[in-house]
Amino acid sequence: xxxxxxxxxxxxxxxxxxxxxxxxxxxxxxxxxxxxxxxxxxxxxxxxxxxxxxxxxxxxxxxxxxxxxxxxxxxxxxxxxxxxxxxxxxxxxxxxxxxxxxxxxxxxxxxxxxxxxxxxxxxxxxxxxxxxxxxxxxxxxxxxxxxxxxxxxxxxxxxxxxxxxxxxxxxxxxxxxxxxxxxxxxxxxxxxxxxxxxxxxxxxxxxxxxxxxxxxxxxxxxxxxxxxxxxxxxxxxxxxxxxxxxxxxxxxxxxxxxxxxxxxxxxxxxxxxxxxxxxxxxxxxxxxxxxxxxxxxxxxxxxxxxxxxxxxxxxxxxxxxxxxxxxxxxxxxx
Length: 334
Known about the structure:
This protein is about 40% helix and about 15% strand. The chain is an alpha/beta fold.
């Protein structure tokens, strides 16, 4: 298939592009290469993609560019779309909220309009575990209400799900939303805790451990995430006429929302100790209180995705962190 992949220079987009090419698809990737974190890492990912065997074209384009996105859809014959592009980061949304409205809301609307006018067979898009906000019932299930976000980032991701449902209902565009839980691995994002921890540990500098180290996250290795994305792409949702609308993750429209995580939350202290073992060096820890926009724990109920597409994450934390650490040490020394 010919597939549009947004956020192609991003962490998950990079690995998804590799997998799609390996599976024989033609991939057109777009990204605006913004400077939320150093754009050189994004360019390095693109350089790696250019080395891959496969059909990959990159176009620098901002999701918020309404005419540019419309022209892209009119000029290309896409069959499916994987929409991973977004302004990421919970804490940054406290400092620069308009960037989230531009990229995550306006940008997603532009993608939905492109799908509408191009009769796209399936749109798979990135949501986030952050939509669970103030929810306390664990594990988080897609049947849960998600009306109490604690960051603007989370609110934009919830908005994306609502927008997708409206387009699925109005125009019969099949859409699948994936609520990503904490993703880690090689070529990851420098603003993520595991990258910041590794950098500081190797430099002998203190690491900031929020909520006194009592945070829990459903850390999910990148290969497991990409496997779920591809499996979901190949499973187009169908309308469920018998749906009583009590479960917000499914509908009478061709619409589904899934959790995609590891289903095994890990306490931050355990994560840090595993990273210390991998790097062969102890961390200097600076314990700090909870930060605005953070949640104490995330834990994905993945039963729906497992039942629908056979999703089974199988990368142990120690193995995944070793893959990250080996890459990280080599990359920072280049």
